[in-house]
């Protein structure tokens, strides 16, 4: 099921920042990037999160973009992941995988329930303008590309 061009599913999850984050609240000030991760054990997810951590302040300061990473693990494990990789962005804990399932889906692996890695750019109206669900664990959309995608009025920045 693709969400491209559809209304983004609303959610509210606990954050490693100590509060609860709702997608609707994030969209009040501008676009949001929802990142669905496989789990705290996934090094490819950590690499992707680091690229968003590097550009998140710039995207927030210049474009009012919120980066909203969702990780299907408990809040203590997700907090440990944030600290281990020295991320400047807060992560959201989705221990039952309910939000992951509503976006890119979930699957059972040797690590238990995992999210299927996905990147979603959601405009101020709550419409999914970009969707990338990874075919393989290493297939990711990185922060810098998303920054320029948003700045290019939701068009691929390096075509043509």
UniProtKB/TrEMBL annotation:
<dbReference type="InterPro" id="IPR000866">
    <property type="entry name" value="AhpC/TSA"/>
</dbReference>
<dbReference type="Pfam" id="PF00578">
    <property type="entry name" value="AhpC-TSA"/>
</dbReference>
<keyword id="KW-0049">Antioxidant</keyword>
<dbReference type="GO" id="GO:0034599">
    <property type="term" value="P:cellular response to oxidative stress"/>
</dbReference>
<dbReference type="GO" id="GO:0045454">
    <property type="term" value="P:cell redox homeostasis"/>
</dbReference>
<dbReference type="InterPro" id="IPR050924">
    <property type="entry name" value="Peroxiredoxin_BCP/PrxQ"/>
</dbReference>
<dbReference type="InterPro" id="IPR036249">
    <property type="entry name" value="Thioredoxin-like_sf"/>
</dbReference>
<keyword id="KW-0676">Redox-active center</keyword>
<keyword id="KW-1015">Disulfide bond</keyword>
<keyword id="KW-0560">Oxidoreductase</keyword>
<dbReference type="GO" id="GO:0008379">
    <property type="term" value="F:thioredoxin peroxidase activity"/>
</dbReference>
<feature type="domain" description="Thioredoxin">
    <location>
        <begin position="2"/>
        <end position="155"/>
    </location>
</feature>
<dbReference type="InterPro" id="IPR013766">
    <property type="entry name" value="Thioredoxin_domain"/>
</dbReference>
<dbReference type="GO" id="GO:0005737">
    <property type="term" value="C:cytoplasm"/>
</dbReference>
<comment type="similarity">
    <text>Belongs to the peroxiredoxin family. BCP/PrxQ subfamily.</text>
</comment>
<keyword id="KW-0575">Peroxidase</keyword>
<protein>
    <recommendedName>
        <fullName>thioredoxin-dependent peroxiredoxin</fullName>
        <ecNumber>1.11.1.24</ecNumber>
    </recommendedName>
</protein>
């Amino acid at each position: 099921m693709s969400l491209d061009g559809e209304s983004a599913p609303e959610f509210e999850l606990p954050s490693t920042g100590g509060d609860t984050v709702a997608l609707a609240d994030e969209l009040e000030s501008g676009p949001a990037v929802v990142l669905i991760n496989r789990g705290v054990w996934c090094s490819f997810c950590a690499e992707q999160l680091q690229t968003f951590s590097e550009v998140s302040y710039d995207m927030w300061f210049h474009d009012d973009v919120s980066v909203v990473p969702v990780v299907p693990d408990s809040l203590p494990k997700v907090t440990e992941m944030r600290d281990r990789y020295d991320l400047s962005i807060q992560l959201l804990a989705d221990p039952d995988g309910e939000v992951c399932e509503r976006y890119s889906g979930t699957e059972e692996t040797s690590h238990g329930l995992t999210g299927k890695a996905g990147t979603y750019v959601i405009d101020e109206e709550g419409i999914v303008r970009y969707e990338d669900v990874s075919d393989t664990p290493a297939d990711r959309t990185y922060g810098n590309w998303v920054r320029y995608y948003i700045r290019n009025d939701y068009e691929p920045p390096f075509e043509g």
